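ok trying this again, last paste got cut off
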Amino acid sequence: MVFADTSALFALLARNDRMHPAARATFEHLAKHDARLVTSSYVLVETIALLQRRIGLTAVGDFHAKIVPLLEIIWVDNGWHSRAIYRLLMSGARDLSLVDCLSFEIIEAKALPHAFAFDKHFQAEGIPTVAPDVPAGPSHA
């Protein structure tokens, strides 16, 4: 099982994102090895908002129809939300998001060994990310 973050899911669908080649290669690698992708409902909301704003509704439709069915989704309830808020406030970091804090809580609680993520906060948190050796493309995002 691998946790899927917004940074990777967005890059997977955004062909002009500099991380698109790495996201695609990683996604194919994970599929080849029958990895189960786990994410949160907060990551879904964040990904959809980003896709809608930066690419358009067609990308949202593609994400919803082609990617979301492949994900095991942890739906956020009051308990998960409270844990994420506590972690955010305890971090003292203005550049760390509530969504990331929730992701870290889920990764720890479910003992997930890796994350499909390009967000620097995952590595800073000591969470190994999974990615084949694929160079990032030119930055267009």
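PB: full thing came through this time. The mean pLDDT is 92.
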